Amino acid sequence: MLRRSLNSHLRTVHKYSQEEVESVQEKIRVESNIRKDAFHILCPLCEEQFVNQEDFAGHCEANHSHDGANGEEQDYTVYTVTFASKEEFKVWLHESSERTVTSLYTKYSKAGGLYYRCNRSGKYACEGERRVRSSKKEVLHCSCYVNARNKSDGTVTVKACFGHIGHDVEPALLKLSDMQKMFLKSLLEEHSLDYVIRRCRQGYSAKESRMHFMTKGDLWNIINKYGLRPGYRDANDLVSLQLRTAEENRDDGIRRLEMPVDNSGKGFIMVIITPLQLQWLKAFSSRSICVDDTHHPTRYNLKLATVVVPDNEDRGLPAAFLLSGTMTTDDVQKLFEEIKKLMPEFNPKQMVTDEALCFYNGFKAAFPSSTTTLRYCRWHISKTWERKVRELVEPRHRQYVNKELQQLLRTGQLDDFQQKFGRILAYLDVENQNKMAQYLRTNYLGRVCNWGSFGTHGAVVDTTMLSERWHLRLKNEVLHRNSNTRADCLVELLIRAVEDLADSNDIKDRRRLARSSFRTQQTTKQHRKAQELYDGKIPEKILSKGSGIWELQGKKPEEKFIVENKGGCICPSTSNVHCPLCSVCPYTWTCTCLDNRTGISCLHRHAAKISQNRAAIPREKSSAPEPADFVQRSTSEDPLAPDFEDIVQAPTSSDVCSVPQSQLEERKTIRSKIEMAFTVVMANVNRLVNSDTDEALAKLREIQEHIDKLSKLRLESSPREHEISERPELTKPGAKPLLKKVTLYTRSEHRRKLNQLAFDNLPSEVENSSTKLIMNNISSLRQVASNVRSPRTPCEAGTIFQ
What is the pTM of this model? Predict the structure, then answer.
């Protein structure tokens, strides 16, 4: 019944008098006021009832001030405060909640008023069925409350009480405040989850702050709330990628995006070439390129192919990315078509891939007149041969065949290569290993120029190790071995990784670090080996034959190696892979030994270069430690050295542990509060910067004066700590066009779909026979079980399992 017709109903139907009607109305008003607080306000300790929170707080102050919060003393004073603005009220509310270990929630609001209640009070009501939750509610009503009214002149009048009753004061059960969320957001923009959790637990006390009890689930909630996931634009990966492409950000380098035709990812194409990658292509691609792909960079059945170019120090630089669902020749062709649009003169001297022909065929389809030669990765061929030897060769011949095939891959002289290959084939024929012999003749004999080491003179790469090393770094350092990454997150991390790699190489070069180039490290090691083997024996073991040719004796007297300097080095003078000790060039010096790794000079080439220089190898200064007597003498003669007896008799750390520990916790707490306040200051600064008024400029100058004063408050003996620079901000969002929304299957979903499809397509007779076999097995097991359960003698029961 409607409330407005209740009075006439009482008079007409129930024949109530006017006094009785007014009595009913009064009861309704009282109950209505109670319902606004959800329930009758009931004291959880003495069960006395109240109409409003203020009376309840007065009762607690008079009767329960010493044991209200489970034996902990509380202050139930009711404050009446007026603030000039909402901002002042929010600051006061945050400080009061931090001081009293209180967390509030908005009970309801009306007519410009906000009514807050303690988060430990109320009745828990589960809103969903997917998660199993435990309630933080302890009592129906708590004396802690805040009633705020916003007036027309902008002021805020507040009545509040921060004393608790009926439950303990537990900071672990508090909610995160808005200021704490802002502080955590700033940390998550710069640091990992583990660092943020460790920082919170070290910087906040477990007795006072909710921040001490931070978990990864809390941080993920903040990440999702503020959109801190890398590259995140939409909950759907592909929609997020479409939105990013629509932004047309030049720095992203997204050259092509084609959406998949179905949930398996078929037809998906994405080509990324950033401006920095384009510079690498123009500067280094003429020497050689290396193309390879890797599996499982995301949660979907997508493959990532990378075009890697070697720089002047033969370090691999990822110059283009292709993210594809199928990685066919047509997909690779689209990658090189985008490169052709940006660089029509693209014509590398050499292209190194594994034995998958899609990369070279896609390249030739885009550049049909190119003179690029194809080289197969020597490492991939080696692994393929090892696998085929296990399949096709008898066990007693495998060790010998593997050894000969590995030596064949390393043979750099054409005559020796022909002899070894013929000897291997003859051996296999004589030993009746016809399958392996036929496999080598069919697949490798006709294309020896594409994989034989005799054709690698002057080549920069002969394996795909540059691509493999990049993919390993991507999965370990960037993706952290997470194969469940979103597609838009992968794209963002790829773009960042290119910039990070460029900065890392630049820093190593400017600092002249020895580990800046892997090949330079290996070349230096070979120089040391040459020193150990030929030091003082150059006239005996190294014979010069003139015209830049030397004959060297190996470790065994019967070993002879020919080293030749062909000349014509075109390496840059300031950035190259020459030996830093003897300046031998790995591309103009050759050797007949089996150590013919590209870009790395073997020890014989170093020895020949040393012989050519005719100069003694400079010996390093001894770095042996000083004698013990000098150390003891200098220590004893020091007038400022403490007496040994004084050190022994000094108090231990356990004697003075309590006071310094409490002071350390207090200093950490103050530091954390300062950081949180500074976050709010920066938010205000950003708003003032965007405000084109004289008042904003004056306030900015005032803030600068205060910051300058605070920056001078530091100890003279304390070193200045450098702050970690912020990460680059995401690009500005563009318009949202009509997007094609497709949800890709994850790898596990894809496998389930394929298995279900295979099961559905089984022939009826196979399915019936399988079902019949299963039913027969189940019947047999049931019969055995029934025999075991039936009463038998021990002998009869044991015969069942015989």
Answer: 0.67
